[in-house]
Write a structure and sequence with these properties.
This protein has 505 residues and is an alpha/beta fold. It is built from 17 helices and twelve strands. The strands form four sheets. Strands 6-5-7-8 form a four-stranded parallel sheet.
Length: 505
């Protein structure tokens, strides 16, 4: 790929960036001078960008496969500034944060660890997701290369896998720097699933902890236990059972009426735990809310569902054209069913071991059925129809007092498409307390102000729900144990617990 463009030389002195315009030149992704790269077994792979816990579990999981892998530090505002300095204009939040985070880390290796730029380019490589899309996601690789070149790391290697294919990567990846084998993806998915489960328990417990910070201490211990199990290739089930004991030590007071806030939206902006979404989750908890994040598992199940729909379309086209039966379709169908069953089985086993009882792997067919009257299911990209489906589901099944959809500024799938549809959804469900909000890297004050206004309404709803319930004279001790997770029609956790006591569960 190449295009004519003006280049900007960026120099740094005493922490200040200086921009020097240069004459237009032909952009080339590949360096003109061949580089003697280190072999696979000596290459250090870098990646990151999921939750803090999942990044560290993935680091341990991939190292257990003999891959020299380092999880990058959490992207911060300095990463954003670095991404804007070295990246093209008009990129979205995730691009600036993730590209800038990689450049910032390489600068740290060079300026503080003493490695030369040549040595970094030769020994290190970056793993990222690729694939097409209706937005700038399909151009991420080029953006990385452009920024790395301007930062003094021309020729730095990047290896990517198609996020839409998951474990079903094609033969075209045989020459990739990293072998994307089924074992690689199974190990990766195990780390992601376990991270999702532990994160969900953390969000359930932290708002109700008696001693501030005790939940985070327990979660840190759990992270080390699971990471060690990956590295030693020992039983993950036993490790999670051990984590169950650590979490059980955290004292909770769960009979506090707090609004439940479901957070969804564009994958990275809604999932990250840092400056990328203005530390939204910690802000909500500081404001007295209980958060319901969308686990990465949901995006994984959506990818499997999309693969299944694509296969059905191929089979329908072949049938309409009266073509011969393609036996590769049967193989693909078997792989999809196997992947779906494996994900559900592993999630159930891990959740049971650590004590997460009230969450089920999302049924993508049901979610698609909820969204189909509002959103064209054939329109893929981003989270597709999931944002619409999650809002309808949350209202119909009393899942949250407030639903926040967070996305980067100008995100086409989420802002331009999903938000337009949500206006019709909220017209049909006027009881929905829904907030759509964008992030741009700056503008935190406006962001927090809008969240607080929506949260005020949620707090009132949680208070009214709590006050409408009769308070029993005797409260069983199990009510304050995180393992007690009853289900009923109430939204708030405290109200749900009281309703369960009345029903003598």
């Amino acid at each position: 790929m190449s295009l004519n463009c003006s280049t900007v030389k960026i120099t740094e002195k005493n922490g200040d960036l200086t921009f020097l315009n240069q004459a237009p030149s032909q952009w080339k992704e590949a360096p003109d001078t061949p580089i003697n790269y280190a072999p696979k077994e000596e290459t250090v792979f870098l990646s990151g960008g999921l939750t803090l816990l999942q990044d560290k579990l993935i680091e341990a999981a991939l190292n257990s496969l003999g891959i020299r892998f380092i999880a990058l530090p959490n992207p911060d505002f300095k990463s954003f500034q670095t991404g804007k300095a070295f990246g093209n204009r008009g990129q979205c939040n995730p691009t600036y944060f993730t590209v800038g985070n990689l450049v910032k880390y390489l600068q740290h290796l060079r300026d503080e660890q003493g490695l030369s730029s040549e040595e970094i380019v030769r020994k290190y490589a970056y793993i990222t997701a690729g694939g097409c899309g209706p937005c700038r996601f399909g151009m991420y690789i080029t953006e990385y290369k452009k920024a790395l070149r301007d930062a003094g790391f021309e020729g730095f290697r990047l290896t990517s896998f198609d996020h839409e294919k998951g474990i079903f990567q094609g033969e075209e990846l045989e020459e990739q720097l990293l072998d994307y084998t089924p074992k690689f993806f199974v190990t990766l998915i195990k780390a992601v699933i376990i991270g999702d489960i532990i994160n969900m328990l953390g969000y359930k417990m932290r708002p109700y902890e008696v001693e501030a910070g005790s939940t985070d201490v327990a979660l840190a211990v759990c992270k080390e236990i699971v990471a060690e199990a990956f590295l030693n290739r020992s039983s993950l089930i036993k490790a999670l059972w051990k984590c169950r004991g650590e979490l059980g030590k955290v004292k909770l007071n769960r009979l506090q009426p707090k609004p439940k806030v479901m957070v969804m939206g564009e994958f990275w902006a809604a999932m990250t735990e840092g400056d990328g979404n203005y530390n939204l989750y910690r802000f909500l908890e500081a404001e007295g809310a209980e958060c319901i994040p969308q686990p990465i598992l949901n995006r994984l199940m959506l990818s499997i569902w999309e693969a299944e729909q694509a296969l059905k379309n191929k089979e329908r086209t072949a049938h309409e054209g009266e073509k011969a039966v393609d036996f590769s379709h049967a193989k693909s169908r078997l792989l999809i069913r196997t992947a779906k069953a494996a994900v559900k089985t592993h999630f159930a086993l891990y959740a049971k071991a650590i004590g997460l009882h009230d969450y089920e792997v999302p049924n993508m067919e049901k979610l698609a059925d909820l969204a189909k009257d509002y959103y064209t299911l054939e329109c893929s990209g981003g989270e597709g129809h999931l944002e619409v489906a999650h809002l309808i589901e949350a209202v119909k099944h009393n899942l949250a007092h407030l639903i926040i959809s967070v996305k980067p500024f100008g995100c086409m799938p989420s802002s331009a498409v999903s938000d337009g549809v949500q206006s019709l959804v909220t017209a049909h469900y006027p009881q929905a307390n829904f907030l759509s909000i964008e992030t741009s890297g700056e503008g935190a004050a406006n962001f927090y102000s809008r969240v607080q206004m929506a949260l005020f309404k949620a707090k009132q709803a949680a208070k009214e729900e709590w006050e409408a319930l009769e308070k029993p004279e005797y409260i069983p001790e199990k009510v304050h144990n995180y393992l007690f997770q009853p289900k009923n029609e109430k939204i708030g956790s405290a109200a749900r617990l009281l309703a369960a006591i009345e029903q003598r569960i």
